[in-house]
Target: Adenine DNA glycosylase
Amino acid sequence: MKIAALLLDWYDKNARDLPWRRDKDPYKIWVSEIMLQQTRVEAVKDYYERWIARFPTPGELARASEQEVLTYWQGLGYYSRARNLLAGVREVCADYGGSMPEEKEQVRALPGVGDYTAGAILSIAYNRRVPAVDGNVLRIFSRLFCLEEDILKAPAKRAVYRLVQEQIDRDRPGDFNQALMDLGAMICVPQRPRCPECPVRELCLAYERGVQEVLPVRSPKKAPAKVRLAAALLEQDGRYLICQRPAAGLLAGMWEFPSVELKDALPEADQLRNWLQSVFLLEVRVMEAEKQLIHTFSHRQWHMTFYRCRLLSAAPELPDKARWFSLNDGDRLPWAGPHHNVAVALRGNKE
Ligand code: SF4
Model:
């Protein structure tokens, strides 16, 4: 029997019941696939349901403001995904009358849509024979065919893409791709694959040779760069000073407590005080450290200390992109990841 037949037979009995599988709406598949990048299925389910309740169609999403969209994405991280989704949906509304195009080049040209997402949308929504190769599929195929090249490098990725193209089912390409997603999530998992339960075990070269635990070959990732930050918790009349991050770059456009990257040998409190003075013209005393957090992104790791600060003189007019903000209104703004946790904790302390 071929890989596709075994896989689909298993899928018919074991497919996961996921909210985005209840219909074949390409917009919903698009939303779920973007949310699932870098995020676990269990964590995505609630976000997905809330999102679809608020933005049930491309038109509803296209009309929403970026700030509202980011608020609905709050907590999922990698916010450029939400911005790209919004830009892509606006393009679909402007150029395709609100219906997802059916040609791979057109789908692939939408902001934030890579080969994998295009393959998932086209195969599931339109039954097109297009592979959807992500980390799961790379892992499964490198084991099935005992590929010993570095799976993160382009030649191995191209080899896997070609193999999937050969194996993908003619009649049910969407189910074939989804079966691979489920196999990667439940059976052919990264550590200790459950080979005895695997539907394609009899065709798996890695299993036959007993090397399934050492595949795929992967070059070690670089550790994220450590960045030290001091952040100010400055309160006036029950409101905190917050500011908006620049429109481009990490956590672009999100809101946070003012924070400075620590660079020189001065004590942290002095650096924070000097920075608040130079940027906001604020005279403050930096008091005790309230909270310390470590937050890891793909390429950097923030080591943050949040300091209570006290105003020493009347605050001047704030620059653009800064404001005094009541934490009771906290969920109306898209917060930059770790700052949201601190805002929630501060609000909790007051209740
Ligand atoms: S037999 Fe094992 S290694 Fe091979 S595909 Fe199945 S789970 Fe993965």
